[in-house]
Design a protein that fits this description.
The protein is an alpha+beta fold and 389 residues long. The protein is built from twelve helices and six strands. Helix 3 runs parallel beside helix 5.
Length: 389
């Protein structure tokens, strides 16, 4: 029995050692620090179990379970954090329930309540700690396959704990770790499996989160949250191929902010950044995922509108232009306007993004010459661009 507990402690301690080596260069990583604390609590808690019979009962039972309650709470907090599901409300709930679990269990010891009731209470509390992260991993629609699998596995653990609580109350079978029975063997096996799930599973979830962060950094513009130029071109080229095969129309909008340099020079670069972020958020809201929206650089942006003919694209361009003109940015007492070049291709087109950008840039230049704060449509092959009324 002590060998089994020693193996569990050694497994958690091994994880602590590895995390310690990682933390040496990542001491500000809050997520890793939280998980690190949970492992230490479990190492100390299970380690004290080994000395049961050699230390006072309030230590081998009361303190041990208090440490394990705290460790479970901190670990499930880490599971919530890795899913971006941790906030003040969740923190308050976990703190409150952890205090309730520790105080409640120690009161049962002081009142001399029989072991079965204590086991039921401890198992129920341990299971409840898992409910929130399991719910998030299983129910959330955008959860990855790894998160869903982890959710189901943790869900089985929670159900097992609830089942242990019920059996402790309503059967005469011994459910304790120190009473030889088939349940003792199952409990030890569960401890090993849970240890592997906790340690390996969390590291995989952490790795997945890091990968998602890197993909986002490589895909989106840091300031505005729009697609960056490289990603916009890649996705636009793919959509153009599909639209050409289906012989659907497509519209390309290229626009920039009028007198943006003057805004920076007059009101400062922070104000200029507010203009970019405010305008980007507004455009994304108006588009409502009907097309691609990306930043090409500086104050120049592009929109690809699949399936939009001249009439609909003209209405959309005017909607975006007028929305920006009506926008108000704190600390900037002037209206922000945009000039826009519009290119619409009929069914069965061939050109790629580079051609669209070239034509859109010509129409945008004409919009500047026409007095700015307008949208100009590119007419080809040789017609002059004209302002969209």
């Amino acid at each position: 029995m002590k060998t089994a507990f020693f193996s569990v402690v050694l497994g958690h301690l091994f994880t602590v050692v590895l995390i310690s080596a990682y933390r040496y260069g990542h001491q500000k990583d809050k997520l890793i620090n939280v998980f690190y604390v949970s492992k230490w609590l479990e190492v100390i808690g299970w380690g004290l179990v080994i000395f049961r019979g050699h230390v006072p009962e309030y230590i081998s039972i009361g303190l041990v379970n208090s440490l394990l309650f705290a460790g479970s709470a901190v670990e499930t907090i880490a599971l919530s954090m890795v899913q971006h599901a941790y906030n003040r409300k969740v923190r308050r709930n976990y703190i409150g329930f952890t205090i309730f679990s520790i105080v409640g269990f120690n009161l049962l010891i002081l009142l001399g309540v029989q072991e079965g009731t204590r086991i039921a209470f401890a198992s129920l509390c341990m299971g409840m700690f898992l409910v929130y992260p399991v719910y998030r991993m299983i129910v959330r629609g955008s959860a990855s396959k790894l998160k869903r699998l982890m959710g189901y596995l943790y869900g089985i653990v929670a159900l097992g704990l609830f089942g242990r609580a019920v059996m402790s109350l309503f059967t005469e079978q011994p459910m304790g770790f120190f009473t030889p029975s088939v349940y003792q063997a199952l409990s030890f096996l569960s401890l090993y499996l849970i240890m592997i799930l906790e340690n390996t599973g969390f590291i995989l979830l952490y790795k997945e989160q890091a990968d998602e962060r890197l993909i986002r950094m490589a895909t989106y513009d840091d300031l505005t949250g729009t697609l960056n130029r490289r990603t916009f071109i890649e996705q636009a080229e793919h959509q153009l191929v599909q639209l050409s095969k289906s012989r659907s129309a497509v519209t390309f909008l290229l626009f920039d902010i009028d007198h943006y340099k003057n805004i920076n020079d007059t009101y400062g670069h922070i104000a200029g950044d507010r203009v970019l972020t405010g305008m980007s958020a507004l455009i994304q809201e108006k588009l409502k995922d009907i097309g691609l929206f990306g930043r090409f650089g500086g104050d120049e942006f592009a929109v690809l509108l699949p399936g939009m003919d001249e009439k609909r694209s003209g209405e959309t361009a005017e909607l975006l232009r007028s929305a920006v003109e009506a926008m108000r940015i704190p600390s900037i007492p002037v209206s922000v306007t945009v000039s826009m070049g519009v290119v619409t291709l009929d069914k069965g087109f061939e050109p790629g993004v580079n051609k669209l950008y070239k034509w859109g840039d010509q129409a945008l230049y004409e919009a500047k010459r026409s007095g700015r704060n307008c949208a100009v449509r590119f007419r080809f092959p040789k017609e002059q661009p004209r302002v969209i009324e």
